[in-house]
Amino acid sequence: MIWLLVAHFTAAALAPALVRKWGRQAFFALALVPASAAIWALPRAPGVIAGEPELFFLPWAPNYQLALAFRMDALSLVMLLLAAGIGALILLYCARYFSDDEPGLGRFAGVLTGFAGAMIGLVLANDLIQLYLYWELTTVFSYLLIGHYPERRDSRRAAAMAINVTTMGGLTMLVGLVILGESAGTYLISGILAEPPSGTAVTVALVLILVGALSKSAIFPFSLWLPAAMQAPTPVSAYLHAAAMVKAGVYLIARLTPAFGDIPAWQYTAVILGTATMIGSGWRALRQHDLKLLLAHGTVSQLGFLTAIFGIGTRDAALAGLAMLCAHALFKAPLFLVVGIIDHSTGTRDLRELSGLRKKMPVVFWTSVVALMSMAGLPPMAGFAAKEAAFGAFEHADTLLATLALAGVVVGTLFTVGYSLRFLWGAFFDKENTSPTPLLHPPGPLFVAPAIVLAALSLLGGFGASLADPVFASYADTVPGAGHDPAHLALWHGLSLPLLLTALCLAGGLLLFRWRVMVAWLGARFALPEAGNVYRRIVYYLSSFATQVTGLTQRGSLPLYLGTILVSLLVVSTAPIVWGRLWTLDVPPVRWIDTPPQLIPAAIIIIAALWTLIVRGRLFAVVLVGMTGYGTATLFALHGAPDLALTQFLVETVSLVVFVLVLRRLPPQFSTPVLRSRRLVNLAIGIGSGILVAVMAYLTLAGRQAESISEGFPAAAEEAGGSNIVSVLLVDVRSWDTMGEISVLAAVAAGVASLLFVRRRTRLPHTHIETGRIVARLPQPPSNGESEWSPLPLTYVGDIITPRVAHKPLWLPGVLTLAQERRSIIFEVVARLMFPVIILISVFLLLTGHSHVGGGFAGGIVAGLGLMVRYLAGGRHELYLSLRLPPGLLIGLGLSITTGTALAGAIFGTEIFAGGAFDLHLPFLEPIHLTSALAFDFGVYVLVIGLIQDILYSLGAGIDEQAEKDSRTGKAPEYESEEVTA
Amino acid sequence: MIPLSLSETTLPTVTTQAPDLDYWLLSPLLVVFAAGVIGVIVEAFVPAQRRYSIQTALAMVAVGVAFVLTLVQVGALPADSAGLTLAFATVVVDRPSLFFQGVILALALASLLLIAERRDGESAFTGQAAAVPGSEEERAHVLAGSQHTEVYPLVMFAVLGMQLFTAANDFLTMFIALEVMSLPLYLLCGLARRRRLFSQEAALKYFLLGAFSSAFFLFGIAMVYGYAGAVEFAAVRAAGSSGGLIDGGEPLLLIGIAMIGVGMLFKVGTVPFHNWKPDVYQGAPTPITALMASGTLVAAFGAMLRVFYVAFGTTVAQWRPMLWVVAILTMVVAAVIAVTQRDIKRLLAYSSVVHAGFILTAVVAANADGLTGAMFYLAAYGFTTVGAFAIVTLVRNPDNGAEAGDLTQWAGLGRTSPFLAASLGLFLLAFAGIPLTSGFIGKFAVFEAAVAAGATPLVVVGVLSSAVTAFFYVRIIVLMFFAEPAENAPRVLKPGILTGTTVGLGVAATLLLGILPGPVLEHVIPQPAAETSEAVAAEHTAADSLFAR
Does ipTM surpass 0.90 in this model? Predict the structure, then answer.
C-alpha cells in the first residue's frame, strides 16, 4: 500500500517536468496513477468485503508509537475507489479544461496528483497520527489549489480562509487524537475500534475530533470556507469540494462511528449541526445565481445530511450514510464538471445569462438531468436508493433526536429538489428576456466523457443498489446493535414512509421552483449574517486586539518591562508568604529602633527617595539619590559600624562626582515628562518590591540552622594581629575575595576608560612647566597604516599657553589653561592647601586600618578625592600635573603588590597569603603595627587611586577635551543620547 | 593567610585538599574555555589583519573538537548508571547534559558560521563599538575596515556558559554558568553594524533586565537554601521529600521555586518575562540573535529541566500550578501579539516565545516523555531557527545594505529567489508544526507527554495557539509565493559558503527530524532504561532516572 503513496508523490514531483514537456497532455499520464490505485484495489475487494482487511505496518518513530500503518477494510475500500477513481477522471478532464499556456499548470498538476495521494493515504491510514498527517497534507494541497490564481485577491483570500479554518479544525482534532490515543494506549485505529476506551477524557477527545471533522466537511459553523473556495478551478471544486477532501470529515465520523456512535455528545453534535447545515445551506442554494455557488451551497447542505446520518450511529444509518456518500460523489462531481464545461464553452456560469443550452449541448444536458435526478433523490438513481435508506434509518432509530432530524432532513431534501430544478432550469432552459447564449467553442468528447461516466454510474448505482449492498453492509455490520432486521439497500422498498416523504419532497421542491423568485427574495431578505463577513470580522478583531495588546505591553519602555517583571515577581512570591503564613515562623524578634537619632537619617532617606521621583532635573535627582546613600551611611555609623559608614560616605561622594561629570554632557532635565499616574504606579511597584525583599530577607533568618560564622570573627581578627574586624576580613581572612574584587575593579576601570578612549591609551599626557609657560603636549598616537583618520581625544597637539604672570608662583599651575571666568582663586587656594592634608589622611587611614577605622580601600578613595578636588579647581592639566603616574601604571602596580604579597606568603611562609606581623617603633609616634596584610592593603590603596584617576581622566578630562575641541570647531555640544524615562 | 586555629564548631572546615578533577570528563568545557582564553591573548598579541583568520579557525576548531569529545563521552558513559558527578559534585556528566551540550555545540558551530561570514570585508558587527554612532569617527573606522575580532572569544565564553548551564549540579554552579553565558551575550547584542543605537539600546535593556532576573535567581537560591540547607540538587531533592529543615518552611521553598523560576523563565523568555526578547532579537546582530535563539534557549531549557526534574522533582505539585499559568499566558499572549508583527526578526522573536510556551508544557508534564519530548523539540527548533535567522541575514535593503526586516518587502520573494524562499517556507512550516517537518514531531512529543501527565487543557491551549501562529507563518508563505514583488524589493545576497552551510544544515535537520525521526529518537536522545508506567510515582523515577545526581 505504501507504494500507492510513493507512486502518487513521485508522480506529483515529476508533474511539472511532464507538463513542461507535453503540455496539458501530461494529465493523461498522471491520470494513470490514481487509476492504477483503483485497479490495485479492485481484485482485493472480495477479500476485503469478506472481512479480511489488507494490512501494512512499518514503525516510524517507535518511541512515540508512531508508525506507518495502513489498513484497507470495506470503508477504506469504498473511499479509495471514490478518491482514486474520480481522481483519475478529474485528471482526464483537466487535460481538456486547461490550455497549454495556462500559467502555473505544472505546479497545479503536481499538487493535484499529490492531493490524490494524500487522500488515498488518508482513507487507508490505520494510525491516528498518520491520519492527521494526510489530513494536513490535504489541507495544504487544497490551499495551493484554491490559490491557483494568486493574482486574484479573492482567490488568495479564499485560500487563506480555507486553510485557516481547516487547520484550526485539524489542530483541534490533533488534540483529540492524542487524547484518544493516550486513553486507548495505542494509536492504531483498528486497535482503538477493537477496544474503545471510555471516560470523560474520551468524550472530550471525541468532541475535539468532531470539531476537526466538521471543519473539514464544512458543517455549520465552519461552512463558510467551502463556497469561498469556489475560486478554485472547476476540476478542483469537483474533486476536492465534492468528491474527496470534504468527505474526509464525514469519513472520519464514519470511521469512528462503530466504536463511539452511541456516545450522546458525539451523536447530538453531529446530528444537530448536520441537520442545521443541511437546511441552512439548502435554503441559501435556492437563491444563488452563480451555478458553481449554487452547487457549493448544495454540497454543504449534502455534507450536513451525511453528517446527520452517520451521527445517528445505528447500523442502518451507517449503511445509508455510506451509500449516500457514494451517491453524492457520483452526482456532485459530474455536476461540477458540467458547470466547468458550460463556463468553458460560454464564458459565463451566471444562470441569468444562460439560455437555450438544452438544444445546443444535448449530451451535457442529459448528463446533468441524470445527475440532478440522483441529487434530488428521484428513482431510479443511486441518490434515490441511498436517500430512501437514510429516511428509513432515521425512522427506525426511534429516538426523539432521530425523529426531529428526520423532519429536518425532509425539509433539507425538499430544498435539494428545489435547487436541483433551479440548476436545470438555470443552466439549460430558454428564458424570457434572455437571448440564447452563444457557444464560444463546443466541448470536445473527451471533455464531456468524465461527466458522462460519473452520471452513468449514478444511474447504474440505482439499479445496482442491491449489488452494492453487501459492500456497504460489510462496513455497516461493524456498528454494534444491528438487530435482527437489518436494512438493505434496494431501489424498491415497497410503499413505506420514506417513499411518502420522497413524494412530499418532490412536490415541495416543485412548489419552491414555481415560486423561485419569491423564495430568492425571502432568502435574501431574512438572510443570516454572511459567514464570510463574520469570519473577516473575527480576523479583524483578532488583529486589532493583537495590535492593542502589543501597543500596551510592547512599547519598548524599559521601566514598563521591568515593572511587568517586578509585578509578576511580587505576585508569585507574595502568594506563598501569605498562603504559608510565613510570619508564624520562628524568626528572631524585630528590633525597630535602637536610638531616637536613627529616625533623622531614616526620614531623610525616605524624603529624598520620594523626592527623586518628582524632580525633573537630572542633577538634582542624582543629588537626592546621593542623599539616600549618605543617610544609609549615617545609619551605619549610628549602628556602630564606622568602617561601613566611612566607606559608604566615600563611595557616595565618588559616585556623585562621577555622576556630575557625566551629566555635564546630558540635557539638564529628563527628556520626557512622566505622567503622574505612571509615577504613582511605579511608586507602588517600587514600594511593593522593596517591602517584599525586606520581608524575605527578614523571614530567611528563620531558616538559619548553623551558628553564624561571624561568631568567630573577633578571634580571627585577634589571630591576624588586628582589631578592626572589617579590615582584617578584607585583607586577611578573606583576602582571596578581595583579590578577586580588586581585579574586577581594575577591569571596570579599563572598561570605563576604553569607552571614551577608543584607541589604546599610549602614554600619560605630557604636561610640564617650562620657564614662563606650561607645555601640555599630548603625544601623537602611533600612526596607523590602514587609515588616515585621527581619533578624537588624544591627538590634539598644542595647548601651549603663555601665562600673563610668569614669575609669580601659582597655587595651581594647571589653571593657566582655564578660561578666566572659570577660575576661582579661593577654590584654588583651598584645593592646594588641602591636598597634602588629604593625602596625609589617606595614608593614615591606610596604616591604621588594621586596628582602627580605615583601610586601604578607604585611604585610596580619600587620596582619589584629593585628586578630584585638584581637578575640579584647576582643570584637566592640573590633574595631569598633580600625579605624574598614569592610571594604568597605578592599577597595574596595585595588582602586582597584592599578588606579590600573596605569593610572598607562599615563598617565605607556608602558603599563599601566609603572613607575619611586627611592630615598628618610630620616634614621636605610637608604635606602628605592621603586618604583611598592610602590604596587601597598600596594593589595594594604589589600585583605588589609579581607578579614581582613571575615572577622572576619562569622564573628566576626556570629556573636557572633547568639549574644548567641539567649541573650537564651532560645534555646539550635542546630546548624544536620549534617556528613556517613560 | 594567617592560619586560623579556631575550634571546628565555630568555623566550618575549609578544605585543604585541592579537588581531584577528572579532566577527561571536563574536556569539552575546557576546550571551549581554552579557546576563549587563547582568543583573548590573540587579541592582545596578534596583528589586527591576521586576527580574523586565527580567531575564526580557533573558535570553529574548538567547538568542533568539543563536539567530538562530547560524542566520545556519550559512548564512554557506563551503560548501567545515569552518569557521573565531578568536582565535588558541582558538575554532572550524564546523558541529558551531554545531549544538550552536543546540541548547543552544533548550534554554536552553525551560528559561528554566520558570525564569521563576511561580505566585501563586512561582517555583521560594528567596526568599532566605542565610536559614537553616526560620528565622523565611526565613518573613519568603517572606511578603514576596522573589525572586532573580540567577538570570537566572547562567543566562546558564552558557549562555555551554555554548556555548563546544562551540566551544573548545584544552584551556585548554575548561577555562575548563567552569568558566564549571559555577560558576553549582553555585550555581543550591542555590536550590530547597522542601526547601532538600536542595537545598543537592545544590549542595555537586555543587560538591565537580565541583571534583575539574575538577582531574583540568587534570591531564590537563598530561599531554597533556607529550606533545604543545601544548594546541591540532590540534597534539595531529598529535602523536598523529607519536608525541609524547619517546620512550616515550605513557603521558603515556594518562594525559592518562584524566584529561581523567574530567573530561568526570563532566560527562556516566557510571558510575562518575555518583553526583552523582541527588542533584543531585533536589535542584536543577526548571527548573535541566531545564537541566542538557538543555543541560549536550549541551554536555558536544559538547565530548567534539570532544576525542575531533579532538584524540585519531589515537589512537582508545588511548582506545577505556576508553570501552568506561565505556559498558558505564554502561548496565548505571544501568539496574539505575534499576529501583528511586521518585522521578520520580531516575528521570529515572538515565535520563539510561543515555542518556549510549548516546551514548557513538556516541563509541566514532569515525566520521562516530557523530558525526551523537550529534548527533541529543542534540538529540532534550534536547527530550524538558526536556519531561519541565516536567511534573514541574506535579505538586504537595496539602498543601504541593512537587513530588510520589514515583511512587506519580502513579498514575491518566492519568484525572485525560489530556493531561499522555499527554505524559509520550510522553516516556517516547521515552526507551525506541519507534519513531515521536525516541528510536528516535536509538538507531538511534548503534547503527548502533557496529555499523559493530565495537562490536557494546556495542550488544548497549545494547539489553539499553534493555530493562531500557523496563521501568521502561512501569511508569510503566501506573501512570498503568491504576492507580487514589492516596490522596494530587497536585494538578496547570494549565500556564501558559510551562510549556505548554515541554511543547508537547518533544512537538512528540519527535514530529517521530520521525516525520519525514528533513528534520532532511538539513538541520539537518551531514553529511560526501563519504562515502568505502573504508577505515577514510578513514572517520576523514570523521569529523572536519566539525570545523574
Answer: no
